[in-house]
Amino acid sequence: xxxxxFIYSCGCDWLYFFSPFIGEDVKPxxxxxxxxxxxxxxxxxxxxxxxxxxxxxHWDVKHLSxxxxxxxxxxxxxxxxxxxxPQFETSCSYVKATLEEFLAWSxxxxxxxxxxxxxxxxxxxxxxxxxxxxxRIFEDKEEVFQDVRWSDFGFPGRGGQESTLWIxxxxxxxxxxxxxxxxxxxxxxxxxxxxxLVECAAExxxxxxxxxxxxxxxxxxxxxxxKRWHLFxxxxxxxxxxxxxxxxxxxxxxxxxxANPDLKHFPEFRNTTAHVVTLSPGQVxxxxxxxxxxVESVDPITVSINSxxxxxxxxxxxxxxxxxxTLVCALKSAESSNDGDPWLNPTEVEATSHEINLQYLxxxxxxxxxxxxxxxxxxxxxxxxxxEQETRAxxxxxxxxxxxxxEDCQLLNHEFSSSTLKAEKLQKVPFGPHLIQVLPQSQxxxxxxxxxxxxxxxxxxxxxxxxxxxxxHCTRKQLVMSNDCxxxxxxxxxxxxxxxxxxxxxxxxxxxxLVNPHVIRLVAQLLLExxxx
Length: 533
Fold this sequence. Notes:
By secondary structure, the protein is α+β, with helices and mostly antiparallel strands. It folds into 2 domains: about 30-200 and about 225-310, Jelly Rolls, CATH 2.60.120; about 315-410 and about 505-530, no CATH class. It is built from 13 helices and 19 strands. It is globular, with a radius of gyration of 23 Å. The model is unreliable at about 1-20, about 195-225, about 385-425 and about 445-500 (pLDDT under 50).
């Protein structure tokens, strides 16, 4: 028995692909196999027929409105008009509203004239309830955590409490960024999301999409239920003009508005390659470590759930992130507060003090060495299974984490540190109707039977190294610090390091590294290059 499960957009034509029908109780991949794919694959891919029995698939906005029972949540409001610069969160407005009020506003009901959305005309603005941690908004309804079952992907115990909810209206978007920690699994529930993994020439990126993969009953459904994902590979980082302003832990933003690029100011963007994919309800997108992504809701209303999966390389990435936070907070806090530069992203609670940032750094360094010691012990006594090694308490406060080296520092480390890699390669990638390879538009193929949407054969498989686990229910202080966030840096538990005599890092230690001649030379080259632009 077959059902119509995929539609490929090829210019103006539609190609239907029929795949075997999979019952709710039969999944194409075992949890062990799914986990192996998630932890090893360094190419974006879409899982199909894996979540048909998840209760969370019923979480459309009306159902969520009933579940929340009048509880207000914060919405980010932005303009639908497309500018040449990204619409960062620092330039958006914010309102608190119920989902019932959001539904009324998005449908243009007159009742919104006096509600929280009254200042924002639906035809000109979009609204986005993004980064809503399920554990927080449903803290009084813990039973709903079981509606999300990431155990089907080989992560036992991971459910709604480790997941984030996203609800947006047409036009709602997330600026192009990459996450410093982990990899990302995204489940589409209502509407469709369109992602473009940057890997097609910039000139062709703005043409009609040729590699959108969706699951719909008809082309009409496609036209009215879309959320676009624009994804770019780690190798395109320099072409995307990375920046840490506005600053948000673990999020490295692009200065380019990838939906409307300013090629005069950012000419290297022409060298990017875009992977663009449209997710349909029931599909799960794997966003590997360090992949840039810009996400846009094309549907009137979209709902999705994601979970960031921690990776071994997150430990090193947290050290880099702690250094970045220390530098950014120190330099920006020293500036005049009247310069009108909104450098701190609204998702950050406050600019942390130098003392707190040093605590972050020391905790991150200790966690890194502890992880290294554990890895060496595992190699000497290999006994525990992958499932037993899976869940660590590394979690980040809110948003993006793809373990990408913080902006320019990534030039020092070269993208992957082979010394910390754990080789975990798939012997054979099971691409097909249930695991769709997302390929670049330039390699678009009409051979739909092969299960490919578009692809790049570079680093299809790579050792898994950094983490994207950073956007869970924990606070950012929990990310790199122990439960006692007030513990002085010189009183850290000796157990947190493989060497009990390890001295706490000081400001001078950090400065000694930062002003090392090799580092200064690189920074000077980067500054001169930036001045040239």
